């Protein structure tokens, strides 16, 4: 082991930050860092379990906790017998807070290449371009853990992407807490579309650029146009939709309406027919009636959602939604199951329609699986080098993934 062991929970931004910390603390082999998540109560519980498992597995290691869960409730994590110290989210760049004898404040690298499986074969780079959030969705605790929105200047983003390409990464993912808020705090208020345009122009050797979750309210016209005109921008858009009924969206304090979400998808598909949609959807939000839930069910077809992330609502202590009238837990679970069933049927139809198509997949660490441009998971008939881009013809579907052979 050449550096600290890092246990990462939660989002892609956490993944990127963990990899950067690991690289910066090379040599600290007696250290375990738990990068926590607070998006749900379950995530906090899992963070505690991860700390205790790590302590049992490596009783002689020092355990340091950082991330959103520890930021929101520092005292609770600091009081755990297994934890040596808690590092605030905003101080992740300070080497001394992890290892007092390791040297001065560090410059955390602005990119970290890491596979979806988070192992040693770095085939994809996550580049954090933004952190924090200025909004106050009633179900979300993350602004308390991450603070206000801050953007990385475009020049630094370009240099990070260049470094990732020079390191052999075939795909870069621009990530953050609220990526579409990019630039609002920078001089001139550049948009995410302007940033993407600049990256693609100034890093011509970048094969593939992908974006993490996007807010439909903040999608700028320049970005939408780029999806139409730039083949290196992957045709996969993951939208933070959350619900399909306007009253629930209002009670969530989301800033888009159902009609606006459907219109956005229709406009993007009209410009680039191969674009595919992913979305976050919450089932059983407080006060949700059966008719309101039916609107979310219908949104799967209306927005052609083929990469769904479906969550049963879980009241997060400290959020306004936790104080709203709650639905019975069995109702919440049933609605989540129905959403998943509807989404799975819609996805199966889409996967079947991909048979016979030719795609380019990025081969991941095991040499036989990877993702196509539209983020469909593909398995190869024969092994290829990890990190390679390979053209494959889709032959059939197995379960939730496609199977292909070299084209």
CATH class of the largest domain: Alpha Beta
Question: Which secondary-structure class do the elements indicate?
Answer: alpha/beta
Strand proportion, as a percent range, falls in: 15-25%
Q: Specify Rg, calculated over alpha carbons.
A: 21 Å
Shape: globular
CATH topology of the largest domain: pyruvate-formate lyase- activating enzyme
For CATH, the homologous superfamily of the largest domain is named as: tm_1862 like domain
List the helices and strands and how they pair.
Elements: E1 5-8, H1 12-24, E2 31-36, H2 41-57, E3 62-67, H3 68-72, H4 74-78, E4 85-86, E5 112-113, E6 124-128, E7 130-131, H5 142-146, E8 150-151, H6 154-166, E9 171-175, H7 192-202, E10 208-211, H8 221-229, E11 236-242, H9 246-252, H10 258-271, E12 276-283, H11 290-302, E13 305-312, H12 329-353, E14 358-363, E15 369-371, E16 377-380, E17 389-398, E18 401-406
Parallel strand pairs: 1-2, 2-3, 3-4, 6-9, 9-10, 11-12, 12-13, 16-18
Antiparallel strand pairs: 5-6, 7-8, 14-15, 14-17, 15-16, 17-18
């Amino acid at each position: 082991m050449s550096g600290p062991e890092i246990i990462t929970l939660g989002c892609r931004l956490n993944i990127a930050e963990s990899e950067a910390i690991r690289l910066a603390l090379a040599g600290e082999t007696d250290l375990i860092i738990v990068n926590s998540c607070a998006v749900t109560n379950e995530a906090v519980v899992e963070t505690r379990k991860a700390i205790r498992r790590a302590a049992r597995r490596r009783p002689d290691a020092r355990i340091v906790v950082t991330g959103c869960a520890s930021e929101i409730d520092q005292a609770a994590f600091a009081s755990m017998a297994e934890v040596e110290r808690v590092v605030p989210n905003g101080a992740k760049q300070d080497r001394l807070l992890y290892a007092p004898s390791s040297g001065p404040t560090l410059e955390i690298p602005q990119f970290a290449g890491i596979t979806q499986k988070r192992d040693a074969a770095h085939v994809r780079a996550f580049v954090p371009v933004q952190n924090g959030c200025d909004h106050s969705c009633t179900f979300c605790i993350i602004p308390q853990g991450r603070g206000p929105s801050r953007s990385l200047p475009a020049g630094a983003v370009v240099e990070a992407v260049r470094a990732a390409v020079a390191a052999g990464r075939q795909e870069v993912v621009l990530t953050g807490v609220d990526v579409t808020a990019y630039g609002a705090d920078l001089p001139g208020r550049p948009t995410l579309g302007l940033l993407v345009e600049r990256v693609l122009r100034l890093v011509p050797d970048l094969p593939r650029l992908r974006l993490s979750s996007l807010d439909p309210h903040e999608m700028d016209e320049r970005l939408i146009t780029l999806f139409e005109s730039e083949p290196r921008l992957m045709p996969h858009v993951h939208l933070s939709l959350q619900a399909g009924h306007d009253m629930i969206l209002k009670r969530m304090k989301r800033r888009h309406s159902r009609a606006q979400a459907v219109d956005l998808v229709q406009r993007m598909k009209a410009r680039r027919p191969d674009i595919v949609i992913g979305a976050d959807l919450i089932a059983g939000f407080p006060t949700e009636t059966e008719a309101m839930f039916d609107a979310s069910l219908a949104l799967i077809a209306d927005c052609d959602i083929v990469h769904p992330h479906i969550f049963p609502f879980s009241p997060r202590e400290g959020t306004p939604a936790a104080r709203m009238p709650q639905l019975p837990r069995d109702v919440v679970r049933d609605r989540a199951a129905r959403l998943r069933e509807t989404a799975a049927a819609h996805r199966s139809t889409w996967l079947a329609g991909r048979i016979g198509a030719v795609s380019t997949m990025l081969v991941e660490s095991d040499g036989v699986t990877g993702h196509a441009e539209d983020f469909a998971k593909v398995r190869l008939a024969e092994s290829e080098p990890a990190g390679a881009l390979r053209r494959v013809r889709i032959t059939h579907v197995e379960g939730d993934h496609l199977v292909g052979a070299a084209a």
